[in-house]
Design brief:
The structure is a single chain. With about 130 residues, the chain is mainly beta. A hairpin with a 4-residue loop joins strand 7 and strand 8. It is globular and about 40 Å long. It has strands at about 5, 10-15, 20-25, 35-40, 45-50, 60, 70-75, 80-85, 90-100, 115-120, 120-125.
């Protein structure tokens, strides 16, 4: 059982920045891929980014490419999401997610079904 705890959400204005962090409870963090999902009001949950266990491959949704950066610190069991140039359409609940049974060692996860654990979510609100 993996427990994921997110932090760093909040409210910013259009064009602002936020950094999310997620810490995993178990000692095998470096053995699995990670990612961030989000759910905007009235929309389905989507994969924002995925990163392989060693950070060698990263996926970004088209909507966030060039603005968001994912990184991980395996020594600290933590994954980060740096979000720059935020837009109102980035508003939503952001979930840290772990892909503990994902078999793509060299390819980052890109689909929601790749992830089998999710944190409780943190709200990000971008106002215009």
């Amino acid at each position: 059982q993996v427990q994921l705890v997110e932090s760093g959400g909040g409210s910013v204005q259009d064009g602002g920045s936020l950094r999310l962090a997620c810490t995993a409870s178990d000692g095998t963090f470096s053995d699995y891929a990670m990612g961030w999902l989000r759910q905007a009001p009235g929309k389905d949950r989507e994969v924002v980014t995925g990163i392989t266990k060693n950070g060698g491959d990263i996926y970004y949704a088209d909507s966030v490419k060039g603005r968001f950066t994912v990184s991980r610190d395996n020594a600290q069991n933590t994954v980060y999401l740096q979000m720059n140039t935020l837009k109102p359409e980035d508003t939503g609940v952001y979930y840290c997610a772990a892909a503990t049974t994902y078999r793509g060692t060299y390819i980052a996860p890109t689909q929601e079904y790749d992830f089998d654990y999710r944190g409780q979510g943190t709200q990000v609100t971008v106002s215009s």
